[in-house]
Design goal:
The protein is an alpha/beta fold. The protein contains 16 helices and 13 strands. It comes from Roseibium marinum.
């Protein structure tokens, strides 16, 4: 059994308590399954799609999870919108909103179907422009099925997108959810927060999804060979060849054209969310562009250190082109390095990370190296035949809620 600290906020101070944890804890699991509306506030730092399956499963246990998502992507479905409107990336935000959407009739499934619809990649641009027009007019079947006043709200966002859309913008393969978010961003004086809040209500998101920062920036890396790479799309090896050398330093940059390091701020509203969390999780995903990227804004490390709750790292399974040959202890060391940059070099490790959850197949020598830093490592059976080579969402969710 692991013994962990857990913080309980009071009016004038914070009290730290210690309790024995049973893994998994059948009593807590059953209690949360019976009433997820009163479930724990698990806060995740993540991006991309790696956590979406876990997020979908998590809705069975809690409707109060918090997801801080990176808005720095520069590839995939977000790239065209970022170029066209000089805006933060919204693809990962839309993806997580849909993963947490209420899938019952109470969650407006008609809105969900529209948000997850994509224009055909093989269609002619003129035909797609016509299809967009039918959505804005309300005659498209997917829009016509949505009740008022939600239908008019959606039509307005799409209309704003169409009015601002450059002629060169390619609709082929575009996510309708992304177009609605982009229109809302433009409608709200280039602010993400109001449209994320609106979409959360439209699809009945069972949790809270926020961009980790409002700043419109990009990711950059200095490699060990001295090369500088600017842009998330060049770092992930999904759309371009893998990096030629390991990442030496990782930072935010003003744009994609030239090296111009920048700083982002962790908004006060996200700090407040952090202070309400029952557990903080550094989630699976691309190590640098999905996890470390969320820790770069000023104030993130200090907010984490200020909260006395379990702080858990769940490393990704399988190969990650961003980390190359890095071992699990290397990843833990790197994670702490970026956290210490903001929290301060003298901040105790226990304030930033006190637990690593790994699958039972992780070698004991790697566990011993992590444990030597005073970090508890829990080895659990987290991969099933149906989920391999990835985590089975059920045992992972049950492990996390057992720790609250």
């Amino acid at each position: 059994m692991a013994r962990l600290r857990r913080g309980q906020g009071l009016d004038v101070s914070e009290v730290t308590i210690t309790r024995a944890v049973r893994m998994p804890d059948p009593f807590r699991i059953e209690r949360f399954l019976s009433n997820p509306k009163l479930g724990p506030r698990l806060l995740f730092f993540s991006g991309g799609s790696a956590l979406n399956g876990v997020s979908q499963s998590l809705k069975r246990y809690t409707h109060n999870s918090i997801h801080l998502v990176t808005p720095f992507d520069s590839g995939g479905s977000s790239q065209g919108l970022r170029i066209a409107f000089d805006m933060p990336a919204i693809g990962d935000l839309r993806s997580r909103l849909m993963a947490l959407a209420d899938e019952t009739v109470l969650g407006h499934p008609d809105v969900f179907r529209l948000f997850t619809h994509r224009f055909a990649r093989s269609a002619r641009p003129a035909d797609l422009g016509g299809e967009l027009d039918t959505m804005i007019s309300g005659t498209h079947p997917l829009v016509d099925a949505i009740e008022q006043p939600m239908r008019t709200l959606i039509q307005n966002q799409l209309g704003t997108f169409r009015a601002a859309r450059p002629e060169s913008f390619d609709l082929r393969g575009a996510s309708i959810g992304n177009l609605i978010l982009a229109g809302g961003y433009l409608n709200q004086n280039q602010q993400l927060e109001p449209i994320i809040f609106l979409v959360s209500k439209l699809v009945g998101v069972q949790g809270t999804v926020r961009a980790v920062t409002d700043d419109n920036l990009h990711l950059a890396a200095e490699l060990a060979n001295g090369e500088t790479v600017i842009g998330q799309h060049l770092l992930t090896a999904k759309e371009h060849p893998p990096l030629a050398s390991p990442i030496k330093d990782f930072f935010l940059n003003r744009g994609l054209e030239r090296l111009e390091p920048a700083m982002a701020e962790f908004p006060e509203r996200n700090h407040n969310l952090m202070q309400s969390a029952d557990l903080i999780c550094y989630a699976p995903g691309s190590f640098y562009t999905s996890l470390i990227a969320n820790l770069l804004p000023a104030g993130v490390g200090r907010s984490i250190a200020a909260r006395t709750v379990p702080k858990v790292y769940v490393p990704s399974l399988g190969a990650d082109p961003e980390t190359g040959t890095m071992s699990l202890p290397d990843k833990v060391h790197t994670l702490l390095t970026y956290l210490h940059r903001d929290a301060g070099a003298d901040c105790p490790v226990s304030r930033l990370l006190n637990l690593v959850i790994v699958d039972a197949r992780v070698p004991d020598d790697e566990i011993a190296e992590i444990s030597a830093r005073g970090i508890t490592v829990l080895k659990l059976d987290l991969v099933s035949k149906s989920s391999a080579p990835y985590y089975d969402p059920v045992p992972l969710c049950e492990a996390l809620v057992s720790l609250t």
